[in-house]
Amino acid sequence: MTTLILASSSQYRKKLLADIGIKVDAVSPDIDETPMPSESALELSKRLAEEKARAVSAQLNANNSNTFSVGKNQSPIIIGSDQVAYLETDATSLLLGKPLDADNAVDQLSRCQGKVVSFFTSVCVHQASSNTTVVEVEETRVYFRHNPVSLLKSYVEKERPLDCAGSFKSEGMGVLLFERIECRDANSLIGLPIMLLNDILSNHFNVNLLELATA
Fold first, then answer.
1. Model confidence at 160: pLDDT above 70
2. 109, 167 Cβ separation under 8 angstroms
3. In principle, which of 20, 52, 166, 173 could form an S-S bond with 80, CB 3.0–4.6 Å?
4. Are 117 and 141 in contact (CB under 8 A)?
5. Alpha-helix runs per DSSP H in the chain
6. Three-class SS of residue 127?
7. Which value, to the nearest 10 degrees, does the dihedral of the CA atoms of residues 50, 55, 58, 62 take?
C-alpha cells in the first residue's frame, strides 16, 4: 500500500490531486520561506520544496505517529512543492510572492502588464525509510496582456487572488489577463506539476498515479 502525504497547507495543490482521483492527507510544513541573499528564483523554489517535504517527514517522525504508516520499516512518501514567480525588466528583477491584500495584488498585476513572468514550480518527493529524495522543477512563462488599472482593480475585487503568487488564479478568470502561456503542464501554474510528479514517483519510487487513481 502506498501512502502519499502532501507537505502543504495549500487548498489548491490538494484539490489538483483530488481532481485526478488521488486523495491525500495534507500536513502544514510551517517553514521560513525567506529567500537567502542572492538566491535565484529557481534555487529558492527547489530549496523550499525540499525543506517542506523534510519538515513534514521530521514532524511525523518526532510525533512517533503510526497514523500514516504503510508497513514494517516503510514510511510515507512525502510530496513538497513550491512556486516562485520572477519578473525581470530592463531596470530590475523582482520576486512576486503572495500579495495578501488587494492593494499589493493590483500593484503586482500593474507591474506585469505587457511583461513576461517566469513561474518556477518545484516538486520534492521524499521518503525517509528508503533515504530517497528527488527534487525537480518546471518553468512556466506567462505573457501578460495590457489592461487598465481600473480593470485590474475590478478583477482583484471579483476573484480575490490574495493567496496566489502573481495575484491571479489561472484556473479562473485570471487566464483572461494573459496573451499566452508556455509550459508543459498547465497544473504547474496552479501550484503542482502533476506530470512531473508522476514522472518522479514512477521513476524513483515505483508508484504510478494512474494506478492509484483507478484502483
1. yes
2. yes
3. 52
4. yes
5. 11-19, 41-62, 102-112, 149-159, 187-190, 194-205, 209-214
6. strand
7. 180
Assess contact for 132 and 205: CB atoms under 8 A. Answer: yes
- 2 pLDDT tier (thresholds 50, 70, 90): confident
Read off the C-alpha cell for 27: 500536513
Catalytic residue among 19, 25, 82, 103: 82
Angle (deg, nearest 10), helices 102-112 and 149-159: 130
- pLDDT given at position 68: 54
Question: Residue type for 52, please?
Answer: K
Task: Calculate mean pLDDT across residues 116-134.
Answer: 96
Can 82 be counted among the known catalytic residues? yes
Identify the residue whose cell numbers are 510551517. 30
Least confident of 97-101, 122-126, 177-181: 97-101
Residues 27-62: pLDDT tens digits? 999 899 999 998 999 999 999 999 999 999 999 988
Question: What single letter denotes the amino acid at residue 46?
Answer: K
Q: How many residues does the structure list for the chain?
A: 215
> Could you tell me what percent of the chain has a pLDDT over 70?
94
Pick the closest to residue 89 from 139, 144, 167, 151 (CA basis).
144
Task: Report CA-CA distances (Å) from 212 to 185, 198, 201, 206.
Answer: 20, 11, 11, 12
Q: How far apart are the first and last CA of the chain?
A: 11
